[in-house]
Amino acid sequence: VSDSHEQRTPVVIGTVSENDPHLQPAAKNPDTVEHVIAFTFILGFLGVAGFGAAYWVNAKPWILGATMGVGLTFLGVGLVAWGKYLMPKGPFVEDRHPLANSEADRNAFAAAIVERGTGVVKRRKMLAGLLGGGLGVFTIVAMFPLLRSLGPLPKGTLFHTDWRKGSFAVDQTGRRVNVGELAIGSIVTVFPEGTENTDRGQAVDQTVLIRISDENYVTQKGRETWGPKGYVAYSKVCTHLGCPVGLYEQELQVLVCPCHQSMFNVTNGAIPEFGPAPRPLPQLPLYIDADGYIRAQNDYDQPVGPGFWERRTT
Amino acid sequence: MSDSSIPNTKRAKREAEGPYGKVGQALNELDDRLGIAKGGRTFMDKIFPDHWSFMLGEIALYSFVILLVTGVFLTFYFVPSSALVVYHGAYKPLDGQTVTQAFESTVNISFAVRGGLLMRQMHHWACDIFVGSLVVHMARVFFTGAFRKPRELNWTIGLTLLILAIVNGFLGYSLPDDLVSGTGIRIAYSIMLSIPFVGTYLAFFVFGGNFPGTSVIPRFFILHVLIVPLIILGLVGAHLFLLVRQKHTQFPGEGKTEENVVGSPMYPVFIAKTTGFLFIVGGVTALLGAFAQINPIWQFGPYDAARISYAVQPDWYMGFLDGALRIFPSWEFTGFGHTWPLNVFIPAVLFPGIIFNLAYAWPFIERKLTGDNEIHHLLDRPRDRPKRTAAGVAVLALLAMLFIASSTDVIANFFHLSLNEVLWAMRFLVILSPIVAYPIAYKICKELQGIAGGGKRKTPNLVTRTQEGEYLATPTPRYAEDVPHELHPEKVPTYIEEEPDEPAESGVRTVDR
Predict the structure, then answer these.
(1) I need a surface site. Which of B95, B203, B270, B384 has the fewest CB within 10 A?
(2) Would you call B494 an interface residue with chain A, using a CB distance cutoff of 8 Å?
(3) Mean pLDDT throughout B415-428?
(4) Rounded Cα–Cα distance for residues B370 and B86 (Å)
(5) In DSSP terms, which residues pair with A207 in a beta bridge?
(6) Does B18 touch chain A (CB under 8 A)?
(7) Residues of A in contact with B344 (CB under 8 A)
(8) Which pTM was predicted?
(9) What is the pLDDT of residue B308?
(10) φ/ψ (deg, to 5) at B326
(11) How many CB atoms lie under 10 A from the CB of residue A254?
């Protein structure tokens, strides 16, 4: 014991004396605070140890999180309290020296850049120009492999779907839809046969088939033959941002997009009645073949989905 | 006993080590090689202001640390692939469904990997806390004028960090390829399409072709786990380097001037408090991960572009964009042989572009408006700069209203209102909120300026009646505990060794150490 006290190192404590209030802990009764902190550390220790045990026995996730959370929080609270209440309370100060250098240093620096550097460039204008040109061309050329390789050019892919003349309308399981299957007021999502399990089929070709009535249904002028036996079909891709227009409000006869609440009137060419969608959902012209299957007369007469720069028709 | 040889060896050893023992020896070895003694000493003495608002940036830093740790865990198990597999895992309701490997591995992390669900939930919560604390930290810096010269560059870095955090949050929650995130990716694709001239090419290059393709998950993955975090890490380093180089700002107060910094030294006080705070942020995140379910993708199901569910909403920090998209009119024009999808381009590209560029430019705008080109280290109270405060409040009010507007359908359902009423109400509120918020905030600032000792407890007025019947109200003195009794700040004590035998001079004390 005497050994540890043997070597006393005399020290200078700046301008602050040993009993200076700055060096005292903020706590009025440090001993009590020390006990409280010791208690939180014990709780924290138990928490993290419990986390280890919970992990060992493969406990439920919430037990893992609770033990880890309680353990870390108590350790943290104790440590913060130690720093806040038991360490010198200060306040202490440090000087802030101006960042700016002296006028002479600044001038020397500027001179080094301006005089030395530009002097060299000015004397060899042609070299600088050629180097700059070379680097500029490289920058542009380097963009090609970096950017152009990322994907194919759009070309016409945004203008067409996979619906063709005579495509069978199939549901998500690939079953062809027959004329007798849908009751009036029912709806089913259909795809051109063969695409129902493909990414593109689901993303681009998805179409809602609604049976509105028993009779041929004309949703707009010029679409007299498009709705045989009351079956009408619209692209399911919202013209706002491409979400599937998945909600059918039968009473109002509207299709609602759940993303931003655009509403399309299915009895009137799916023109948007509400919300941010700018255009009607394109309608797919249908016919019913001799066996009673619902088939497409043709592809959509315009691109489906949201607007894009190259789109020409409205 | 005491004259055995052991103490002598000990003493000899200690003498060889020098007065500071093994630690001192190790530091000397380091200093021989790196020359760190002087700088290290200054760094240990670096002063951190004690005000609570300086803790907000720490929350951001520590939630980022948690993101890195939990994120590394997740990368060990996540498979960034759109390849289709049939799910046969621990979660029976999905058994037999065809899903992507990304979705399958995320469900496996949640149900089959020990501790996996906790790590996933902590990762997601830490992200929400990260972006949230960045926003609040930025608001503190804005309203107190901490962005002024010489700290414009750090304001710029901080704002870039916020944008990167939002982008990486979006990339991250897109990875599981579930129904909600897939819808979000499709919306992002459509927003890219809306950009005039280059939109289609941009979308095709990002997605490697038409939506959805198979490139987007692996591309988002490498951006999310390597490229963006690396940039964030570098900028965090630059942010902290500038903070040390330029030293902290501070609020005015006892002994605080433009030429000093007052607070607690780095070692040991700040180290103790900040490490403890790291544990607390980690602990709270773990408790959230334990008790508050977040992003249960097995309930949403795998992404299928032809399916959708009700109340599709992004993470909170994307809410203002979603709200803007909802309430913006359906303006799409055709002209010059092209389509101009302004209904998407203005709210989702132009509007955030303007907001963030305005934020980038603010230090320079304010300098132009006030003509104040001085260096400032003392912070403003928000009330003392009523125009800046009111401008900030106006922008926050606008963003808050847009955030609320991202729930129009939920509000309409909950309050049994028509969607149309809610939509039009939100349109008016979004436009009116900054116009109304500005003068109110301005007026409040002006009123607060007029109150001496604002924020302190009021003392009763002593009402007396004079002989003539006149009433006089005299304020009573402040409560003793409300009178500030801050000590005048002192230099951090310097423990410098002396010659052993030199007598102590006045003002110099010898103490045990």
Answers:
(1) B95
(2) yes
(3) 93
(4) 65
(5) A190, A235
(6) no
(7) 240-241, 276, 306-307
(8) 0.91
(9) 86
(10) -70, -40
(11) 21
pLDDT of B498 > 50? The answer is no
pLDDT (mean) for B189-202:
94
Q: How far apart are CA B76 and CA A302, in angstroms?
A: 46
Cis peptide before A244 (omega within 30 of 0): no
Would you call B247 exposed, middle or buried from its count of C-beta atoms within 10 A (0-12, 13-18, 19+)?
A: buried
As a whole number, mean pLDDT of residues A174-193 equals 93
Out of A18, A66, A148, the one facing B287 most closely (by C-beta) is A66
Cβ-defined contact of A12 to B496 (cutoff 8 Å): yes
Which residue, B427, B121, B125, B169, is CA-closest to B317?
Answer: B169
Calculate the average pLDDT of chain B. 90
Does this complex have an ipTM over 0.95? no
Q: How buried is residue B231: exposed, middle or buried, by Cβ count under 10 Å (0-12/13-18/19+)?
A: middle
Residue that has been written with the tokens 């038409």 in this structure: B210
Q: Exposed, middle or buried by CB within 10 Å (0-12, 13-18, 19+), for B211?
A: buried
User: Tokens in use for A190?
Assistant: 């259909």
Tell me if A12 and B206 make a contact (CB, 8 A cut-off): no
Q: Which residue has the tokens 């027959």?
A: A178
> How remote is the C-alpha of A305 from its chain's centroid?
20
pLDDT score of A104 = 96
Widest pairwise Cα distance in chain B = 103
Is the pLDDT confidence value at B110 over 50?
yes
Residue in B118, B423, B494 nearest the CB of A12? B494
Token couple for B75: 């990368």
